[in-house]
Design a protein that fits this description.
By secondary structure, the protein is of the alpha/beta class. The chain is about 30% helix and about 20% strand. It starts with a strand and ends with a helix. Bound molecules: ligand BV8. Ligand BV8 binds near residues 15, 146, 147, 148 and 175.
């Protein structure tokens, strides 16, 4: 039975693809307040501003490419069972070749109905405009988990982490919950590796590789 490698990723793994992280200097949350662009209240207050924020990020994503870290994780599937649990809303894991990706916080390339959350549409890199509606005439919104909103994939992700033979954590500050709490679901004695140049100190007994994702994942794969 192949070992099961679970990879928990954050914005840091896409930094070397040119996508800005959230908390680093010049990060997204420096340019925009979470409360103006990433909460249901913000959407109710100023739909146009929120849609523009995600349209800009979707356009940025269209010109971004998966990097060596994304590709190396995909190649691991030749030898191991690999599941990626990501906080990222970009599609770079899939474009890098990963086949098992759980998006905890949604996907930029999808939209959903504001009336019926079950109505989800693939929109590629198209903009969502005020007046764009679902098949029942309700405004569309980004298929993203905003702050204060439930994380529907949480239990499925926790189940995956519980079955890990190795937990690899790449490019996340582990400051957003309940996603950050997933590291505590790993089985006793299961090896944990953190790859992050500014590694958060919070993951006890983890092996830490203080390097960027591309160099760090390459080093880990060789080890
Ligand atoms: C700010 C934080 C304290 N707040 C929260 O966690 C809140 C509130 C909360 C809940 N429980 C708590 C417990 C304690 C405290 C607070 C809370 N959580 C919520 O609101 C969650 C929802 C949270 C999800 C929000 N959506 C996102 N994303 C989509 C949007 C969007 O993308 O626009 S979160 C978003 O921010 C997070 C950013 O974190 P990272 O990805 O780690 O990025 P960051 O910039 O922080 O770090 C980058 C790292 O990379 C490293 N790095 C840099 N360069 C490189 C490099 N080259 N290579 C490798 N690494 C690198 C850096 O060193 C750094 O370590 C990601 O999760 C990302 O998805 N919902 C909820 O609790 O709902 C209730 C509920 C329950 C049931 C029913 C109804 C309601």
């Amino acid at each position: 039975m192949q070992d099961h490698i679970v990879v928990l990723t954050g914005a840091g793994i896409s930094a070397e693809s040119g996508l800005s992280t959230f908390r680093d200097n010049g990060g997204l949350w420096e340019q925009h307040s979470i409360y103006d662009v990433a909460t249901p209240e913000a959407f109710a207050r100023n739909q146009e501003l929120v849609l523009r924020f995600y349209n800009e990020r979707r356009r940025q994503l269209q010109s971004a490419q998966p990097n060596q870290a994304h590709q190396l994780l995909a190649e691991l599937e030749n030898t191991y069972r690999v599941t990626v649990v990501t906080q990222n809303v970009d599609d770079l894991h899939e474009r890098g070749g990963s086949s098992q990706v759980i998006h905890l916080h949604g996907e930029l390339t999808k939209a959903r109905s504001t009336r019926d959350p079950g109505l989800v549409y693939d929109i590629g890199y198209r903009d969502i405009e005020p007046g764009d509606t679902c098949e029942r005439g309700a405004q569309l919104r980004p298929h993203i988990v905003w702050f204060g909103e439930e994380v529907p994939m949480l239990e499925e992700a926790a189940e995956v982490v519980r079955t890990a033979d190795h937990l690899l954590i790449v490019g996340t500050s582990l400051q957003v919950y309940p996603a950050a709490g997933l590291v505590y679901e790993v089985g006793d004695g299961v090896p944990i590796t953190v790859i992050d140049p500014g590694a958060p100190a919070s993951v006890s007994r983890a092996r830490v590789i203080r390097k960027g994702a591309c160099e760090g994942v390459a080093e880990w794969v060789q080890s």
